[in-house]
């Protein structure tokens, strides 16, 4: 079984103070004096007082004291000044108001918007500068856009065929028609093979196309050619 080595010491400490109040009560202990109460900041550490040296000098304060009141002297006569201001001043104008109930409840007209004070301004009805500037910018942008559109249209515009070119094309088409017609007239009467029939149909189609082109050029004086 484990036995502590401090058991005897504990018994001695426990029975050391038992005898004092065994028959007569607890032992009498010195009671602190009522004048020796715990004061504020009494337990805080205190620094040792600073020793003054012989060469130290107390400099005068550069900041004025609280009790200092500067003397202000002025030559102005405020009584006369106020009197002149009252004499020369304009009288106070009565405020415009409106009464809307039987009890006499009234409200001012100027802040309500019913009093026409804005129409008396010098710039009343004049467009602000930023509006005129914005309108000018929009007009300039519209003109630039129209100029770009016209330029693109001019670039994509169709070319007008001149009279000389028209007559040359017409003569060339007629000459080509004569050649195709001569080849068509030289065809054999009997077209008993597939090759002869296809050649005849090809020549007929060429003649129809040439006749259509010649009629179109002779009908219209102005001819436009797209790029």
Automatic annotation (TrEMBL):
The keyword Metal-binding does not apply. The keyword GTP-binding does not apply. Transmembrane segments: none annotated. It comes from the Eukaryota. One of its GO terms (molecular function) is calmodulin binding. Keywords: Cell projection, Cytoplasm, Cytoskeleton. It is found in: Cell projection, Cilium; Cytoplasm, Cytoskeleton. Residues 32-56 are annotated as: Disordered. Residues 38-56 have a biased composition (Basic and acidic residues). InterPro entries: Enkurin_dom (IPR027012), Enkurin_domain-protein (IPR052102). Residues 133-225 form the Enkurin domain. This is ENKUR protein. It comes from Bombycilla garrulus.
């Amino acid at each position: 079984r484990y036995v502590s080595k401090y058991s005897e010491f504990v018994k001695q400490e426990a029975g050391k103070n038992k005898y004092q109040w065994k028959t007569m009560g607890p032992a009498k202990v010195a009671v602190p004096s009522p004048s020796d109460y715990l004061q504020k900041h009494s337990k805080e550490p205190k620094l040792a007082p600073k020793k003054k040296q012989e060469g130290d000098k107390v400099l005068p304060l550069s900041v004025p004291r609280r009790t200092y009141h500067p003397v202000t002297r002025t030559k102005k006569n405020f009584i006369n000044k106020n009197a002149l201001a009252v004499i020369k001043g304009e009288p106070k104008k009565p405020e415009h108001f409106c009464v809307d109930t039987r009890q006499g409840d009234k409200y001012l007209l100027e802040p309500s918007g019913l009093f026409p004070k804005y129409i008396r301004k010098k710039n009343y009805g004049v467009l602000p500068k930023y509006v005129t500037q914005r309108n000018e910018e929009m007009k300039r942008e519209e003109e630039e856009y129209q100029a770009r559109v016209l330029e693109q249209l001019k670039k994509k515009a169709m070319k007008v065929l001149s009279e000389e070119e028209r007559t040359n094309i017409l003569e060339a088409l007629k000459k080509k028609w004569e050649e195709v017609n001569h080849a068509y007239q030289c065809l054999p009467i009997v077209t008993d093979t597939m090759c002869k029939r296809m050649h005849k149909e090809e020549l007929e189609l060429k003649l129809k196309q040439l006749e259509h082109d010649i009629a179109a050029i002779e009908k219209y004086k102005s001819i436009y050619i797209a790029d």
